[in-house]
Amino acid sequence: MKSDEAMGKDNDFWVLWDRTSHAVRRAREIELRQTADLSGVEAALLSFVKASKDPVTPSVLARLLHREPHTVSGLVSRMQKRGLVKKEKNLGRKNLVRVTVTKKGDEAFKKQGKVSVPSTILLTALTDKERAALREYLGKLHKRAVEVIRENQPLPYE
Q: 118 and 27 in contact (C-beta within 8 Å)?
């Protein structure tokens, strides 16, 4: 069993993790609103749709974004109202839609990519070697976190 001191250090780590991720996310949200009038999740959704060779479904986006399917469906609907994406019905299955980026969405995506607060934070706080190590560590943590989620909560991570 861990000592109280070790448990305190673990707790300090999680507090720092939460504070840092929240601060970086807020900085990114501010930057995105100012440059492209997008939220972080909207920018991520546009990125995934643009990276796909074919139109993607909201359920695929839910898995990529680590969000519940109903949350992504609502997000896609709001983004469609703003003219950022388009939902195209699948003629073979009436209840299936595919998401594509509109011209307005493409313009917003290009704007958000020009300046990035987290990149600025990383560029000024970390060396190239430290950034490479951080990317590697975050990739490992993400992979393991998704494995744990899949083991304990199958959808939308299947």
A: yes
Buried (b) or exposed (e) across 84-104, using 16+ Cβ within 10 A? Answer: bbbbeeeeeeeeebbbebbee
pLDDT digits (tens, 9 = 90+) for 50-70: 999 877 999 899 988 989 889
CB atoms < 10 A from the CB of 27, how many? 15
DSSP 113-147: TT--HHHHHHHHHS-HHHHHHHHHHHHHHHHHHHH
Number of domains in the chain: 2
Run of H or E including 98: strand 97-101
Shared domain check, 132 and 61: no
Residue 52 located in a structural domain = yes
SS3 assignment, position 81: helix
Model-level pTM greater than 0.90?
A: no
